[in-house]
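Chapter review: from sequence to fold.
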Amino acid sequence: MLRHSVRTPGKAAFLLVSFLCLALLASCAVTKKITAADILSKTKLEFEALSLDSVNINKDLFPEKGLASGFLPNPQVVTMLQNFARGIIEKELGTASLDIALSATNESKDTLWIRSFNANITLDTIITLPVTLKDSSQLNPGKNSLSVKTQFPLDRRIFKLPDVRHFKIVGVIEVALDSDGATVPLDFNIERDISDEEMRNIMETVRTSIINGIVNDWVGAILPEGN
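The token string follows.
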């Protein structure tokens, strides 16, 4: 009786197929990364506007008191407001949330996914603050609006805001062609002069918000919820 042997793929053949599959996947990933890098090289980040979003007063400045001990006029609040009017802040009052509007123009027909955004904003020589991306996660073809924010401490440096005439944002944005694809970084440096009117409007809003916040938080301390 003649026996016919059936040959099965050997270990070498299996390894070769596995290697080719991995090479194909790696090639696709590299191609996507190159494509993302090419798109990113044609993407422009530009400044649009700087504005005040809100002011948050430190509630620890106003311990809760009853009506009897907290009646007008409150010496602590009066002194704080008088000092503020004279340009004096003895301890940090809270934070001011600044919004920075940016635009990103994607000149390709592909959508890029924003995977990370790390940057700092410098206001002249007064202060350097970290900024964070608020909502956007994609860069669609065409012009996109990006909103970033930062927290400015309400200390004596707030009185130097009207003197700010220049700022810059320096950072890195990382994007990918897919939500979980390989990322490509883009270093950016946006510099711009600030007009007198812009800083005057911001400072006036900050000043009004601080005064209103101090009074409102103090009233809230002597009139707890439910009263």
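Two observations follow directly from the output. The chain has one domain: 18-222. Residues 4-8, 14-32, 222-227 have pLDDT under 50 and may be disordered.
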